[in-house]
Amino acid sequence: MSRDHSHLFSDLTPLQQDLVYELRQNSARAVMLHQLISEKLGLNATDHKCLDFLNRTGPVTAGQLAELTGLTTGAVTNVIDRLEQAGYVVRDKDPKDRRRVVVKPAEGSSSRISPQFESIMQSTLQILSRYDEEQTRLILEFIRLCNDMTLAEMEKMKNQP
């Protein structure tokens, strides 16, 4: 069932409408791209993106991964179980508190993933080279604000019935 959302855009300028459309397009295409990458890695998209967080942050607890991703701790536990079974992560004792368990990327797992992103990174760098430092800072600010908004919206949704 389709719903008309045009009322949400009625106060926007044509340029803002174009930007919202392109953001939605970018989001949808990013989801599809990461779904394809996930399939090539033998993962589902959620597991793949959680692994991406782990590769960027290093060892974290399940609770910390839940905070980073916006997922529930129960969902994160299932993700970790699947990633561990697929050989992408290992559970280890926290060196600071041996009662706690941290999750970290398994040795060699990044070498299984990196080839999928080489072309994407080169294409991204080509795009970024079109902008000067001030423009790049503005883009960075916009993306950070969008990331913060996304996490806030996820929290709102979790608290709705």
Task: Name the features.
161 residues; single chain; mainly alpha; 65% helix; 7 helices; 2 strands; 6% strand; two-stranded antiparallel sheet; Arc Repressor Mutant, subunit A
Q: What's the N-to-C terminus distance?
A: 21 Å
CATH superfamily heading of the domain at 14-107: Winged helix-like DNA-binding domain superfamily/Winged helix DNA-binding domain
Q: What pattern of helices and strands is seen along the backbone?
A: HHHHEEHHH
Strand order of the largest sheet: 1-2
Give the fraction of residues assigned to helices: 55-70%
Radius of gyration: 19 Å
Assigned CATH class of the domain at 14-107: Mainly Alpha
Task: Specify the number of helices.
Answer: 7
- Number of beta-strand segments: 2
Low-confidence stretches: none
CATH architecture of the domain at 14-107: Orthogonal Bundle
Structural class: mainly alpha
Most strands sheet:
2 strands, antiparallel
Average pLDDT rating: 90
Task: Explain the overall architecture.
With 161 residues, the protein is mainly alpha-helical. The protein has a domain at 14-107: Arc Repressor Mutant, subunit A, CATH 1.10.10. It is built from seven helices and two strands; from the N terminus they run ααααββααα. It has a two-stranded antiparallel ribbon. A hairpin with a 7-residue loop joins strand 1 (89-93) and strand 2. The longest helix is centred in the first third of the chain and has 28 residues, at 14-41. It is globular, with a radius of gyration of 19 Å. It starts with 13 loop residues before the first helix and ends with a helix.
